Amino acid sequence: MGRGPHWHPPRHLAAVRRSRTDAREHLVAEWLLAAVAIVLTTVVVVSQMVGHGDRSAPGPAPPAGPAPPATRRPSGAAPPVATPAPAGWRAIGGARVEQAVAGPGQAQAGFSASGRADQGMALATPGRCALGRIYAATVRLRTSRPATLVTVTLLEVAGGRRGASDTAGAVLAGGGWQEVEVMHEGQRPGAGLAVEVVIPRGSPPATVQVAGLEVTGRP
């Protein structure tokens, strides 16, 4: 038997098969290109972050400027007087305390009270209590507002705690100095003595100056 003619698919069918293969290869190429683009983008972003660092971090400190020139006190001038905060008057109730170096007839310290709370100042004295001994605290006060009510307290202090105390009240007329005295009998031997000057809560705002404070023991 002789051979018959070889059969070949029609040209239009062969073109369809080739087009489907080309489309599949083209799709794979697109996926590969997209993957490469993503990798390159990630590398660029990471390199920028590593290279620049954190922008919010502060930079190096600027070089220090020249030191200010030292001030010299002229010869013969009196040195400035520093106010010893720990040993001086301390505020009570948020009062604003001002201390001064007292001369004859001048204020030793002063405070301003708003009236929103018991406000004033306190001073620890070097005196120590003896059991049964009578102590007297005398102080001169002056106010910026007439008819200002103040209380003066002489109290014992031991271990940072308040002890026995006595209080005297006075209404300051305003304008001039007014002397107030309070007496106390010692209750705890060796306890320290302190003095408090206070404007009670609810009083009109006022400023009180203090001078001539003395604490003495009576025989």
- Number of helical elements: 1
As for the CATH topology of the largest domain, it is Jelly Rolls
Shape: elongated
Name of the CATH homologous superfamily of the largest domain: Galactose-binding domain-like
Chain-averaged pLDDT = 74
Secondary structure: helix percent: 10-25%
N to C succession of SSEs: HEEEEEEEEEE
Question: What CATH first level of the largest domain would be assigned?
Answer: Mainly Beta
User: What is the second-level CATH architecture of the largest domain?
Assistant: Sandwich
Strand content: 35-45%
Strand order of the largest sheet: 1-4-9-6-7
Summing up helix and strand content along with how strands pair, one would put the structural category as alpha+beta
Counted beta strands: 10
Radius of gyration: 45 Å
Describe this entry's structure for a reader:
This protein has 219 residues and is of the alpha+beta class. It has 2 domains: 43 residues; 129 residues, Jelly Rolls (Sandwich), CATH 2.60.120.260. It contains 1 helix and 10 strands; from the N terminus they run αββββββββββ. The protein has a 5-stranded antiparallel beta sheet with strand order 1-4-9-6-7, with no helix packed on it. The protein has a 5-stranded antiparallel beta sheet with strand order 2-3-10-5-8, with no helix packed on it. The longest helix is centred in the N-terminal third of the chain and has 42 residues. About 21% of the residues have low confidence.
